[in-house]
Amino acid sequence: MELKRTLNLFDATSIGIGAIIGAGIFVVLGIATGYAGPSVIVSMIIAGIVASFTAFSFAELGSAIPREGGVYAFAYELISPAAAFVVGCLWLLAQIVAGAAISLGFASYFVTMFPILPVKTIAVLAAAALTGLNIVGIKQSATVNNILVVTKIAILCLFVGFGISHINLQNFSSFSPNGIFGIFEGAGFIFFAYLGFGRIATLGEEVKKPQRTLPLSILLSLTVSVIVYILTGFVATGLQDYRVLAQSGSPLADAAKATGNNTLVAAVSLGALIATVSVLLTNLIGLSRVSFAMARDGQLPKTAAKTSSRFGTPYISILIMGAITASLAFFLNLKQTVAITSFGLLSTHVVVNFSAIRLRKKMPRSNTFRVPFYPVIPLLGVLSCVILMFSLPVESWIVVALIVALSAGFYFVRSKWRLRRRLKH
Question: Which residue ranges form the domains of the chain, and what is each CATH number?
């Protein structure tokens, strides 16, 4: 029950960039700036370095295990089905919550431009529309995403190019108002903005020449995104007082207002809509592929592994994930969703780096991408992810611990039940 390989290097890289550059820079920048102040630029560099360690691990694992499911598939092959189930549930939780955050981010920018409907109604409608596009096909979704990615990169380049000449150096005078801890808190939140590169690995069976395409697209998408983020963060904090950005649901639009150019403000707001649509689209793609892989392995109900005879997509998984994401947008606020998502995905990234260490012992291969400075890079990935986890609010620890306990308990009970059934027969 495999899916078709239809995505080339540009498609895969574009999906990675589409997943990274979005709510993080257009929305979460404001939250991170509240902790770090103008030193959010340093937070971005720290978060980018931490992300790069795990990106290398994703690259090697994706090259060696090119199947649907990403971190779930890696844990299944290299650790155990039990660990895979727990990490799969944790990844799904984090990405569903991320989808709700992205929906809310899109709706916030939409309402500033077109104050027609309430924010949460817009968020639900956006999730529903992209769920429909996802069902139609991965190639169609990738084509739409390619257009969105090129457009939003162009708008961010316009923001940087025009805004840099209007920077007020006085805005950098209180560079790090909360000290080193504020910088790390900012990095913990901004890490949310870099998490999209792992989305590519969830599409292992839909990428052409995966041994080459998967690692290259993962590293390319992260590199491009880090450069764009640092330039954008520098210009935004130079244009506007960090305290204004910290209180804003649309920080780049508020930064653009400092130039006095209404056309730039409108362009940035349009860019935010495009960016968040792109991220939400790739988020729903990743969610449906991981749940599809878990269902195919018998970890979730087999119904979720059904594919459409017409479109070739796992339509049941897509519908379920889209419905849950849309529903959650009604119940969570933005700061909660970012903290839970960052913590949940940092936890799964610990597993990714551990899997990369296990890979060479369990599945030695010479024709796949290799992490440089092994095992230093994956070990640094584990350590840096754990450090960033300690910078996040305590409620994110509680939610993630609860999900781990519930999923582990469910797996144990289900395993016992299945064993009793087999013994009876």
Answer: 9-396 (1.20.1740.10)
